[in-house]
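Page 42, continued from yesterday. The earlier attempt failed because a stray header line got pasted into the input along with the sequence. Redoing it now with the clean sequence only.
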Amino acid sequence: MWTFRSVHFERFNQLRYLIGPAWNCYHLIQSIDKNIEDPAIGAEVEYEKMLEDWVETECHFFRISLF
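This time it went through. C-alpha coordinates are written below.
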Protein backbone atom coordinates (compact mmCIF):
# COMPACT_ATOMS: atom_id res chain seq x y z
CA MET A 1 0.00 0.00 0.00
CA TRP A 2 1.20 3.49 -0.84
CA THR A 3 1.62 6.07 1.87
CA PHE A 4 3.57 9.30 1.71
CA ARG A 5 6.25 7.62 3.82
CA SER A 6 6.50 4.40 1.81
CA VAL A 7 9.65 3.50 -0.09
CA HIS A 8 7.57 3.33 -3.26
CA PHE A 9 6.29 6.89 -2.86
CA GLU A 10 9.76 8.22 -2.00
CA ARG A 11 11.20 6.70 -5.17
CA PHE A 12 8.25 7.91 -7.24
CA ASN A 13 8.71 11.41 -5.84
CA GLN A 14 12.43 11.34 -6.69
CA LEU A 15 11.81 10.19 -10.27
CA ARG A 16 8.62 12.04 -11.14
CA TYR A 17 10.60 14.55 -13.19
CA LEU A 18 10.89 11.80 -15.83
CA ILE A 19 7.18 11.87 -16.58
CA GLY A 20 6.20 13.66 -19.77
CA PRO A 21 2.58 12.86 -20.54
CA ALA A 22 0.71 12.10 -17.31
CA TRP A 23 -0.15 8.56 -18.35
CA ASN A 24 3.57 7.72 -18.29
CA CYS A 25 3.08 7.40 -14.53
CA TYR A 26 2.13 3.81 -15.35
CA HIS A 27 5.62 3.07 -16.67
CA LEU A 28 7.34 4.83 -13.80
CA ILE A 29 5.30 2.88 -11.25
CA GLN A 30 6.14 -0.38 -13.02
CA SER A 31 9.86 0.44 -13.11
CA ILE A 32 9.86 1.33 -9.40
CA ASP A 33 8.12 -1.97 -8.63
CA LYS A 34 10.86 -3.85 -10.49
CA ASN A 35 13.56 -1.85 -8.69
CA ILE A 36 12.05 -2.62 -5.29
CA GLU A 37 11.88 -6.33 -6.15
CA ASP A 38 15.44 -6.33 -7.51
CA PRO A 39 17.64 -3.35 -6.50
CA ALA A 40 20.11 -4.28 -9.27
CA ILE A 41 17.52 -2.99 -11.76
CA GLY A 42 17.86 0.77 -12.04
CA ALA A 43 14.42 2.40 -11.96
CA GLU A 44 15.40 5.22 -14.31
CA VAL A 45 16.99 2.87 -16.86
CA GLU A 46 14.02 0.49 -16.64
CA TYR A 47 11.60 3.41 -17.14
CA GLU A 48 13.39 4.52 -20.31
CA LYS A 49 13.37 0.92 -21.58
CA MET A 50 9.64 0.61 -20.88
CA LEU A 51 8.93 3.79 -22.82
CA GLU A 52 10.75 2.38 -25.82
CA ASP A 53 8.96 -0.99 -25.66
CA TRP A 54 5.50 -0.02 -24.40
CA VAL A 55 2.37 -1.70 -25.69
CA GLU A 56 -0.85 0.33 -25.86
CA THR A 57 -2.96 -2.38 -24.23
CA GLU A 58 -0.70 -2.53 -21.16
CA CYS A 59 -1.45 0.98 -19.98
CA HIS A 60 -4.87 1.48 -21.60
CA PHE A 61 -6.90 0.91 -18.43
CA PHE A 62 -4.47 2.93 -16.34
CA ARG A 63 -4.75 5.86 -18.74
CA ILE A 64 -8.56 5.68 -18.75
CA SER A 65 -8.65 5.59 -14.95
CA LEU A 66 -6.22 8.47 -14.67
CA PHE A 67 -8.27 10.79 -16.85
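Notes: Residues 7-66 form one domain.
Reminder to self: strip header lines before submitting.
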